[in-house]
Structure formats: structure tokens, C-alpha cells
Write a structure and sequence with these properties.
With 866 residues, the chain is mainly beta. It has three helices and 39 strands. The strands form three sheets. The chain has a 35-stranded antiparallel β-sheet that branches.
Length: 866
């Protein structure tokens, strides 16, 4: 199945139905011609109007445009109209976007997803009561943008009535397309026959998220103020996913996730210089996802559709998967790993109530403080989980499986914080902050799994996926397979690697954390131009975890060609395999010949389980230093330093030592020029033996804005980011010819090890020039771009470098002029150029599409203010 089969209409987008490669998205050529003629006519009209204008008057300096925006306002906006008791101002901007993109359209949609079509770029209406005596409201503001097919649509409404209420509403729709084809790609080799490149991401998605927020404040200026709120978030659409099990099938995931949140609060300001608040928040969410296998692109000899999965290597789905290449679809070898069907239905339901009390006060002279305390107890339940597989796994000779069982998880959280600032003298003050965070998540899953095995062949040539399924159960096994060697026509056939026929387990897990942290700082103004602070932060963290799987009824049926009396006709396998000529003590032989481990009255822990709760104590000590200097009124320098040490770490990338250096400089040589720069360096280390973890993140940048006169505005900046990390890792790739060093970590289950590293250098630059050659004309020229270079340890030598090495440039230009007062026209151009500068197709990889895309978006719009 191709990803485009899942994509739905996105306004007038044509992204979904085009293949990858160097195709160019060409749309509405006649519209472009008509628009060009219209543009030319309007330019001529605008030039004529400009020539008739008086010399431009002095105006206030324009605001800085966003580096990526294509919108610019005209000079003279309408001052609005008066209707009754209201002053009304309205602005509408609408037009057409023409998208001309070539290259990898899936990547373009992942990054930008701006398509061709008519658009509402902006609509805003503001109403203000002249004497604050409006009937229903005194102020109303309503704004919108993005409608007509853009990936982001937004509407905002605010209404207020003096002293009575304040109401705000927000609606957002986000179209989220993700299909970066290297994500979860199995990277199949070109040497396998057939060579099968995976052209789209196995975890691609095409989701629409609709978000609504409503907030009402009653009596906003009174001592007793009430707040009500409601939010709704719905995320729906098709997606892809995968599951492991002999092979890795491509599954269609129909996503539907809904969250409803209710908010109620009250503020009391009856105490002088103090506000007390209480909030009740109720959050309910539900997930109704359905996963199915619709990628049945091959067939068996009898015509049954089959999915061979995504991984095509020397052993998966099998050594020679194609039995007949002359058929359409291709006929596969029946003894390959494959799926005839797959379905999974899940229905998690969550409730998350939270109560919070907060306050802020300056009641005590020279002393201000804020604080809050909250409690929440969430609950997540899954009752209707059901997974059904019809397939074949060669290693375990499994013919299918069914999995279900209820699950429940809770989250109990208690949070509190307090901060106080006491002004000791005019120059000296002390600040103290305390934080308490305690949460715990216990969970249980009563699993009920049945593995289905094939029967003996009932016809010549039957093997693998063509074999019938044995439908025995604990209640019917004695009737269907009454006597040894349990190889009757309907008996299940196992091998020594086969799992249990029935697995009933209780999976119990726990994760919790308790944090107590206090920060104290002493701040001193040394002089009018120099200030400094010193502080200390102490954090005590306790982490507890627990994970255990207990068998409540694991049953192994006998049956199989390798069955003998010594192995109880293959019933003695898995956890109940014979050791030293005897069954494990937890396993018992049933009357029907099956062997059982555990029961509802006798829980048996899985081998290797750690049934004790693990506790980890971590103590962090951090020194804080900082200074502020103003050598002149036009120059300001601030510096913040942090040095910390932890006496333990929870994960291999949790720091034991950390350092942070931040310096910011702001210089204003003239009132129309601002220059600022910053340095931000963060270092983490856990370089003890067998971990060797080193990390750093370093950012250096500057921003300059210049507005020498009302006709010219210049804005440019640059950022350099350097990220590095390394850690000892272990992995199970026993067939690797590159990594042969044994894992150095004691107790690790993976045999190979290496020092894994990752580094990335990101150079980001932007610049904008806005120029007003005439009163009615505004021109904008801009640029934004990233150059990224990096490297990492690739365990698979066929891995493309992907996002480690690329250039992404986005120049832009626009021209806007006022036709007459209140009406303006604008033409804007945006260019998107993404170019992979690394190794896109390493030697030995089944060739994948290039990641590059290049192209332009041109918009033509009218703006009318009235």
C-alpha cells in the first residue's frame, strides 16, 4: 500500500496522489496567466497613483517583520466607522496561492504542506463601545486566518463587558502530514532477490487535529472572580504502523483520539495586596484506534492474499520468498514468514481530575511571595483490547495468535511550590524557592494470550501458510487429541522453540518519583550599574520502579514431530523444558498430557523476574552565580553560571556533573539600532567506567535591527549550535562485520559493544529588508536558512545520513502597494530548497528516493480595511 492511498483531500492540495522523484506540482496554469495579467494591470494602476501623490510624510518606524512571513501591511489603514455606540474596524485579506514544488513531495508536505488554491489570509473585526455602555459587550475582537486549504486554520474571539465578564474562544485545525521515508525504514539490501526498497515511512501519518478552547471570567474586576473553561481536542485520520512477529507487516491505523477538559476556578482578592485562587480541572480522554493489515500485496498458490512484511534480508521473510514471479500478484513460498490477516482494537479511557490552590501576596512590607499546591489522581483503563493474527512464523511454527485482557494504570501526583523575595535593604534582597513533586504510576495487565499452531498436512504440498489451524483449547484438547503421541489430524504441531499454547499472566509495573528541591539566592546591587547574585540549589530525588510478570496459567499442549516420551511429546518446552531429566518444580502434568505452570491460585514468577521494588536515591548540589553590568546607558551585559554534581544517575545518559554558562549582551549605539548577542553553553557528564557519557550543547548567536528612517527597516541574525553526545552501548547484532568488540558492561544481555557518539553543527542565518520607496509602496526581501552537518555511529552500514547533513534555505520577497485608502494589493514569493548533502544511498542499499525538494509558492492577495 502506498502512503498516497491514505491521504485525503486537504483543500485543493494535490500532494497525496503524486509519486516521489522529480515530479513538479503544476496547478492551475490558466489561473496563473490570468493572475499575471491582473497583477500587471494593478501595478500600472499603482504607478499612476504614486505619481499623483504628495511627498510622503514622516511616520513612525515600522515593526520588525517575522523572518518567514510574507505578509506586510500598507501604510494607511482605515480608521474604521462608527455605528451606534460602537467604533468598528474590519480588515480582510484574501487571494490565491500557487504552489510549484519539485522533488520529494512527501518531504515537502512533511515540512511545509502549503498547496495551491484560494485562501483567506486574514479577516479581523474589532468593535469598541465608545462610552463603555454596550448592550451585550463593550469590546469584541474576532480574527481568522488560513482557511481554504492551509495546514493551519485559526479563529480567535474575545468579548468583554466592563466589570461583568470576559470571554475568549479559540479554534485551531492542524493538518499534520508526516512521511519522512527514513523513519522506521528497514533499509533492505539491494543484494536480496527481490530487492525491495521501502519508499514511504512505515510510520507515516495524515492526521487532522481540531482544538477548541473556551474561557469565561465573571466579574473580572471584583474581589470575588469566577472562571469557567472548556477545551476539546480531537485527533483523527489514517496512519501507518508496524508490529514485529516473524515478519514486520505494514498496518493501517485508523486513529481517533478525543480529549475533553473542564476548568472551574475562583479568585478572592478581599485581603489587601493578596490573591487567593482555587481551581478544579477535569480531563477525560478516549482512544478508539483500529489497526488492520491491508498490505496483502502477494498471494499463495491457492490465491489467498498474503503480506510478506517490510523486511527483506537474507533470512526475512525467508531465503527465497517468491515461488512464481510470472503471476500477478506474485506467488510466494508458503513456508515464508507472513500474515494472512491482522487486526487490533483498543479502547483506552482516561480520567484525570486535578485540584489546585494558589496564592500571591505582597501584604508584608518588603516581602512578596507566591505558591501553589495541587493534587491529581488519574486513571487509565483498557477493557476491549483485542489482537488477532492469522499468519506463519517459521522459528516457532506459530500459525496465529489471539491476545486480550483488561489493563489499568493510575497516576497519583502531589505538587507544591513556594517562592519568597525579601528586600533586606535598597540594594540587597534574598530569594528562596521550594518545590515538591511526588508522583507514582502503578499498573496491572491481566493478559490472556492464545498461540495457534498448525495441524499436520491434510493434502500434498501443504506447508507453512497453507496449513490448517488447530483449534484446540484446554476444554477440547483431551477430546481432539486423546492419546500419545498427540499427532492426530487436528492436533497442534510444535517444535522445541514454540511458545506456550495458552498464556495467562499478570503483568505488574510501578514507577514513582519524589523530588524535594530548594534554591536560595542572594542578590546585591553593587552600584547603579553593577549587580550580582550568588545562590545554591539542593535537590533530593528518589525514584522507585518495579516490573514483574507472574504466570497465572501457562499451558503447553503436546504434539509435534520431535515429540518423545522424554520431552513429554513436546509439552515440556519453554519455561517447562526438561532440565536434569525432570520438569521444573513449578510445572505440573495435567491429565490430558499438557503441562501447566502457575494458576489463579498459584502465581509463578517468570524466570529472571525481579519481584522486589528498586529504589534509587540521587542528591544534586548546584552552585549559582550571576552578574549584570551596564557600563553605559546603551550597553547591558548579563552572565549566569551554574555548576552542579549528582551523586548517582538513574539512566546511562543521566548526568552526574553539569555546567552551564550563559552570557547576553545588548548594545544600542543609536535610538534606531539594536545589537544583541548571546552565548549559551551546557555540559553534562557521567564519565564513570563502562558509561563514558559526555554531552554538550553550545549556542552562539547575534541579532541586529536597524531602522534609520521610516522608509527602511533591516533585521538580520545568526545562530550556531553545536551538539555532541557519547555513551557506551551494547547491542545484539551478532552478524556485524564492523563491530566485533564484546560488550564491556557486566550483566548486559547483548553480546557486542562500542562507544556510540552523535554530533551536529547547525548554522542558521536570517535577514530581512523592508523598504518604502514611496508612501503607497512597501517592498520586503528576506532570507532564512539552515546548514546542518553531523555524524553518528551507524550500527547498520547501509543507513543513509538523512538529517545529519542537509541545507534548507527559504528566501522570500513581497511587494505591496495601496490602490486607494483602505485597499491594497500584494504579491509575495517564498522559495523552499531542501537539499540532502550526505550519503543518500549507501553501497548495498536498495535505492531509496532522494530527500530533496525545491520550489516556490507565489501568493496574490487583496487587503481591504474598512
Amino acid at each position: 500500500m502506498h502512503f498516497s492511498d491514505l491521504q485525503r483531500s486537504n483543500g485543493d492540495s494535490t500532494a497525496g496522489g503524486e509519486p516521489l522523484g522529480t515530479l513538479v506540482r503544476e496547478t492551475a496554469s490558466r489561473t496563473r496567466y490570468c493572475t499575471f495579467v491582473l497583477t500587471l494591470a494593478l501595478i500600472l494602476l499603482g504607478v499612476s497613483s504614486i505619481q499623483a501623490q504628495a511627498p510622503p510624510q514622516a511616520q513612525a518606524p515600522p515593526q520588525a517583520p517575522s523572518p518567514t512571513t510574507t505578509s506586510s501591511q500598507t501604510v494607511d489603514e482605515s480608521t474604521g466607522k462608527t455605528s451606534g455606540n460602537y467604533s468598528i474596524q474590519q480588515t480582510v485579506e484574501f487571494g490565491y496561492r500557487d504552489s510549484m514544488i519539485g522533488g520529494n513531495l512527501n518531504n515537502y508536505d512533511t515540512f511545509e504542506n502549503l498547496s495551491s488554491g484560494v485562501r483567506l489570509f486574514d479577516y479581523t473585526v474589532d468593535m469598541r463601545s465608545i462610552d463603555h455602555r454596550g448592550i451585550l459587550f463593550d469590546n469584541l475582537s474576532f480574527s481568522n486566518f488560513g482557511y481554504g486549504g492551509d495546514p493551519n486554520d485559526v479563529s480567535r474571539l474575545r468579548m468583554s463587558k466592563n466589570k461583568w465578564y470576559d470571554f475568549r474562544a479559540l479554534y485551531r485545525r492542524d493538518k499534520n502530514i508526516w512521511n519522512y521515508n527514513l523513519l522506521a525504514n528497514p533499509l533492505n539490501p539491494a543484494s536480496f532477490n527481490p530487492a525491495t526498497p521501502i519508499l514511504n515511512s512505515p510510520h507515516a501519518l495524515d492526521l487532522s487535529r481540531r482544538m477548541q478552547d473556551y474561557d469565561l471570567t465573571l466579574f473580572p474586576e471584583s474581589r470575588l472572580r469566577f472562571r469557567l473553561g472548556y477545551s476539546r481536542n480531537v485527533n483523527i485520520g489514517p496512519a501507518f504502523t508496524t508490529v514485529e512477529g516473524g515478519t514486520e507487516p505494514l498496518l493501517t491505523d485508523n486513529v481517533r483520539e478525543t480529549t475533553n477538559a473542564y476548568r472551574m476556578g475562583v479568585d478572592y482578592r478581599g485581603i489587601s495586596k493578596t490573591t487567593l485562587s482555587f481551581d478544579e480541572m477535569l480531563t477525560y480522554s478516549k482512544v478508539d484506534n483500529i489497526e488492520t493489515d491491508n498490505n496483502l500485496t502477494h498471494q499463495l498458490a491457492d490465491g489467498t492474499p498474503v503480506d510478506l512484511g517490510l523486511v527483506f534480508t537474507g533470512t526475512s521473510p525467508c531465503a527465497n520468498p517468491i515461488a512464481n514471479a510470472a503471476t500477478n500478484p506474485l506467488t510466494v513460498t508458503a513456508n515464508c514468514n507472513g500474515y494472512l490477516s491482522y487486526s487490533q482494537v483498543q479502547d483506552p479511557r482516561s480520567t484525570f481530575p486535578t485540584e489546585r490552590f494558589s496564592f500571591q501576596s505582597t501584604y508584608i512590607k518588603n516581602f512578596s511571595m507566591t505558591g501553589s499546591a495541587s493534587y491529581s489522581s488519574g486513571n487509565n483503563t483498557v477493557i476491549g483490547f483485542n489482537e488477532a493474527i492469522d499468519g506463519w512464523a517459521t522459528r516457532t511454527v506459530t500459525r496465529g495468535s489471539k491476545t486480550g485482557g483488561p489493563a489499568e494504570a493510575k497516576r497519583v501526583s502531589v505538587d507544591a511550590n513556594w517562592s519568597g523575595d525579601y528586600q533586606l535593604t535598597d540594594k540587597l534582597n534574598i530569594v528562596d524557592e521550594f518545590r515538591y513533586d511526588n508522583w507514582r504510576i502503578p499498573s496491572t495487565w491481566a493478559t490472556a494470550e492464545t498461540n495457534l499452531f498448525a495441524t499436520s498436512p491434510t493434502a500434498p504440498g501443504q506447508t507453512g501458510l497453507l496449513l490448517p489451524i488447530s483449534m484446540v483449547s484446554p476444554a477440547t484438547f483431551a477430546t481432539i487429541c486423546p492419546t500419545a503421541p498427540y499427532n492426530g489430524p487436528n492436533c497442534p504441531q510444535h517444535n522445541t522453540s514454540s511458545g506456550a499454547d495458552v498464556t495467562d499472566e499478570l503483568v505488574s509495573q510501578f514507577l514513582g518519583q519524589n523530588i524535594r528541591s530548594n534554591t536560595i539566592e542572594l542578590k546585591y546591587d553593587i552600584s547603579r550599574r553593577v549587580g550580582a547574585y550568588a545562590g545554591y540549589m539542593y535537590t533530593a530525588r528518589t525514584i522507585a520502579d518495579y516490573s514483574a510478570t507472574l504466570d497465572t496459567g501457562e499451558i503447553y499442549f503436546p504434539g509435534g514431530p520431535a515429540g518423545t516420551l522424554a520431552n513429554h511429546y513436546l509439552a515440556a518446552r519453554g519455561d517447562c523444558a526438561v532440565a536434569s531429566s525432570a520438569l521444573p518444580t513449578a510445572c505440573t502434568v495435567n491429565a490430558d498430557g499438557s503441562i501447566q505452570e502457575g494458576s489463579p491460585a498459584n502465581f509463578v514468577a517468570e524466570v529472571g523476574n525481579d519481584t522486589a521494588r528498586n529504589l534509587y536515591d540521587i542528591h544534586e548540589n548546584v552552585a549559582l552565580l550571576g552578574a549584570t553590568a551596564r557600563p553605559t546607558d546603551r550597553l547591558r551585559i548579563t552572565a549566569d553560571l551554574m555548576f552542579g554534581y549528582n551523586d548517582n544517575s538513574f539512566t546511562r545518559i543521566s548526568p552526574r556533573q553539569l555546567q552551564s554558562y550563559k552570557i547576553q549582551v545588548r548594545f544600542t549605539p543609536t535610538p534606531w539600532a539594536n545589537i544583541s548577542g548571546s552565548v549559551d553553553i551546557h555540559e553534562n557528564r557521567d564519565n564513570v567506567s563502562m558509561v563514558n557519557n559526555l554531552e554538550h550543547g553550545r549556542t552562539y548567536g547575534f541579532v541586529t535591527t536597524l531602522a534609520p528612517n521610516p522608509k527602511l527597516f533591516v533585521d538580520f541574525g545568526f545562530n550556531y549550535t553545536d551538539i555532541f553526545t557519547q555513551t557506551e552501548i551494547c547491542f545484539p547484532d551478532t552478524g556485524s562485520t564492523i563491530f566485533t568488540t564484546p560488550c564491556p558492561i557486566v550483566g548486559a544481555t547483548s553480546p557486542l559493544g562500542t562507544l556510540s557518539s552523535y554530533s551536529s553543527d547547525d548554522y542558521y542565518a536570517y535577514g530581512d529588508v523592508m523598504w518604502k520607496p514611496y508612501k503607497r509602496v512597501t517592498a520586503l526581501l528576506g532570507y532564512a536558512g539552515n546548514i546542518v552537518r553531523g555524524n553518528t555511529t551507524f550500527l547498520n552500514p547501509m543507513t543513509p545520513t538523512g538529517t545529519l547533513d542537509f541545507n534548507y534555505v527559504k528566501p522570500l520577497a513581497s511587494l505591496a502597494f495601496e490602490i486607494y485608502k483602505g485597499l491594497s494589493y500584494k504579491t509575495a514569493w517564498n522559495y523552499y530548497g531542501y537539499n540532502d548533502k550526505g550519503v543518500a544511498n549507501p553501497a548495498g542499499l536498495a535505492t531509496l528516493p532522494l530527500q530533496d525538494f525545491n520550489g516556490s509558492n507565489v501568493t496574490f492577495s487583496f487587503r481591504y480595511a474598512f
